[in-house]
């Protein structure tokens, strides 16, 4: 016995099928068009009756290119809203994911044509999905579309929520790498987002910790990019790249060993080391787009930080002058630059020509820095313990004195 599911042309899915079919056969004349339109509507109706939702989605998407080229944006968005809602029909998550793949592939087929609208449709599809991995899959499609269609401004706000997305999606390492690298590449296009781009690139490189050599090889080009981005950035003075396996592998790499050496100079040495490196490798620096004068300016600030870290809190002007290779009248201006960049917290003693350092930023934070921090915390703890003991002893003495005074009065 055949089960009949009552439907009508008012059903949204059937309306979309009719609409796209009529667009497809608009130039064929009514004698040819009407039978074809009816055939497609009947086929769609049968899919609905039998619960063949994947086939229905495929049928509705057959003329999707025509919708984008001939329909108004309002009709286009309305049609795809109906198509995207089909993902709510199947009970099987694999079928839902397959349908989401089919729909998103069609939406992203021509990213340069109405990219902002295509992106809006993709995010509508994302919000209809319940499976976390399917959501991640569609989100990645949206990021790639935004990049190809030059509409990245529409996805930038979502990057603030990546940590919560990661908790929701529960991604494996490979998918995390794809996500971090894609976001970094999108942000790289904007000069104002250089720090954010570097942050996500660092996250990408961090996922290679503990991997074998073959897997580490995949990260070489991006590790080099991270080093160059750091050296170029005029407002970045601290990073954790040096000890990352993805980056440290470059130290013994025939092609990239000098790039790693450059990073090491910027994070652990002073201006004189950079100048020696430049004298021997100026062509290499130019090939990576590094400007010598900019590198000198950054290394002067990095060298000043190193002085603040190593010179027991008091730095003579003469040492600043010699280390930074500047004139006497430039010493204070470079100290002010370091203060403005929040690299050092200090007082300038002009009379005695000494810089009195209270605090400075560490260029790297490795085992040595942890050991120094441990020592400082130990000292603070001992001082606090001593202070508490002194207060306690004074209170005991005071209570004893009061007790004796009370006895005397009696």
Q: What does this entry look like structurally?
A:
- With 410 residues, this protein is mainly alpha-helical.
- Helices cover 67% and strands 4% of the residues.
- The chain contains 20 helices and 3 strands.
- Strands 1-3-2 form a 3-stranded antiparallel β-sheet.
- A hairpin with a 4-residue loop joins strand 2 (344-349) and strand 3.
- The N and C termini lie far apart (113 Å).
- Residues 1-7 have low confidence and may be disordered.
List its salient traits.
three-stranded antiparallel sheet; 20 helices; 410 residues; mainly alpha
Strand content: under 5%
The rounded distance between the terminal residues' Cα atoms is 113 Å
Strand order of the largest sheet: 1-3-2
The percentage helix is: 55-70%
Extended strand count: 3
Structural class: mainly alpha
Low-confidence stretches: 1-7
Count, helices: 20
Q: Spell the H/E element sequence.
A: HHHHHHHHHHHHHHHHHEHHEEH
Rg over CA atoms: 33 Å
* Coarse morphology: elongated
What does the main sheet amount to? 3 strands, antiparallel
- Please tell me the overall pLDDT: 88
């Amino acid at each position: 016995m055949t089960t009949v599911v009552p439907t009508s042309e008012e059903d949204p899915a059937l309306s979309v099928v009719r609409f796209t079919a009529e667009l497809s056969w608009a130039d064929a004349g009514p004698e040819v068009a009407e039978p074809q339109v009816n055939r497609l509507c009947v086929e769609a109706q049968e899919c609905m009756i039998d619960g063949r939702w994947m086939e229905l989605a495929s049928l509705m998407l057959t003329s999707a290119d025509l919708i984008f080229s001939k329909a108004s944006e309002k009709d286009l968005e309305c049609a795809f809203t109906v198509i995207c809602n089909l993902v709510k029909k199947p009970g099987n998550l694999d079928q839902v994911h397959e349908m989401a793949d089919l729909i998103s592939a069609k939406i992203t087929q021509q990213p340069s044509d109405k990219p902002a609208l295509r992106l809006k449709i993709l995010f509508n599809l994302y919000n209809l999905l319940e499976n976390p991995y399917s959501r991640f899959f569609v989100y990645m499609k949206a990021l790639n579309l935004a990049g190809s269609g030059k509409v990245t401004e529409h996805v930038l706000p979502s990057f603030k929520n990546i940590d919560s997305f990661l908790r929701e999606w529960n991604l494996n390492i490979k998918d995390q790498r794809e996500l971090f690298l894609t976001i970094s590449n999108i942000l790289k296009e904007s000069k104002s987002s250089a720090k954010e781009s570097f942050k996500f690139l660092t996250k990408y490189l961090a996922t290679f910790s503990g991997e074998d050599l073959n897997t580490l090889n995949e990260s070489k080009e991006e590790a080099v990019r991270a080093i160059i981005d750091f050296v170029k950035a005029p407002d970045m003075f601290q990073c954790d790249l040096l000890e990352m396996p993805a980056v440290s592998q470059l130290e013994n790499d025939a092609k990239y060993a000098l790039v790693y050496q450059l990073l090491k100079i910027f994070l652990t040495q002073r201006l004189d080391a950079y100048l020696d490196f430049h004298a021997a490798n100026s062509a290499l620096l130019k090939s990576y787009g590094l400007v010598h004068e900019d590198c000198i300016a950054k290394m002067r600030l990095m060298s000043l930080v190193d002085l603040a870290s190593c010179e027991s809190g008091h730095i003579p002007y003469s040492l600043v002058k010699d280390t930074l290779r500047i004139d006497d009248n430039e010493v204070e201006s470079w100290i002010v630059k370091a203060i403005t960049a929040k690299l050092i917290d200090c007082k300038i003693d002009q009379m005695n020509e000494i810089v009195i350092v209270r605090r400075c930023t560490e260029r790297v934070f490795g085992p040595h820095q942890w050991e120094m921090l441990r020592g400082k915390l130990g000292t603070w703890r001992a001082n606090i313990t001593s202070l508490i003991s002194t207060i306690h002893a004074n209170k005991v003495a005071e209570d004893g004195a009061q007790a004796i005074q009370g006895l005397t009065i009696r």
